[in-house]
């Protein structure tokens, strides 16, 4: 990070290819450097903190729901009647997609 943010000059290509946390590789070229506006940040800090806390809470809630759903499915606590699950189109023709419990819960 130091090489990217502190040592590169505008127009310069980084001396190596970097691996991201997601396993991707990136080649970096610094095209522009903007200095942070700390006064603007101070005025928006509380709003940004609230937005990030809300997003973190939503992620945690979704992960908790997904884990609970998967555990219930593995323990045989989720049952459904396949006859009540219909993925038919407008003409009433059934599609080949099967219902899978917890599939839409991340």
Could you please describe the fold and organization of this structure?
With 106 residues, the chain is mainly α. Among the domains are: 1-34, no CATH class; 37-75. Helix content is 41%, strand content 4%. The protein contains 2 helices and 2 strands; from the N terminus they run H-E-E-H. It has helices at residues 2-7, 38-74, and strands spanning 18-19, 25-26. The longest helix has 37 residues, at 38-74. The relative contact order is 0.09.
Quick structural gist:
The chain contains 2 helices and 2 strands; from the N terminus they run αββα.
Which descriptors apply to this entry?
single chain, 106 residues, mainly alpha, 2 strands, elongated
Helix content: 40-55%
What percent strand? under 5%
SS class:
mainly alpha
How would you sum up the global shape? elongated
Multimer state: single chain
Contiguous helical run count: 2
CA-to-CA gap between the ends?
A: 31 Å
Strand order of the largest sheet: 1-2
**Number of separate strands:** 2
How many whole angstroms does the radius of gyration measure? 24 Å
What number is the mean pLDDT?
A: 86
Order of helices and strands: HEEH
Q: Sheet with the most strands?
A: 2 strands, antiparallel
Low-confidence stretches: none
Layout of strands and helices, then pairs:
Blueprint: H1 2-7, E1 18-19, E2 25-26, H2 38-74
Antiparallel strand pairs: 1-2
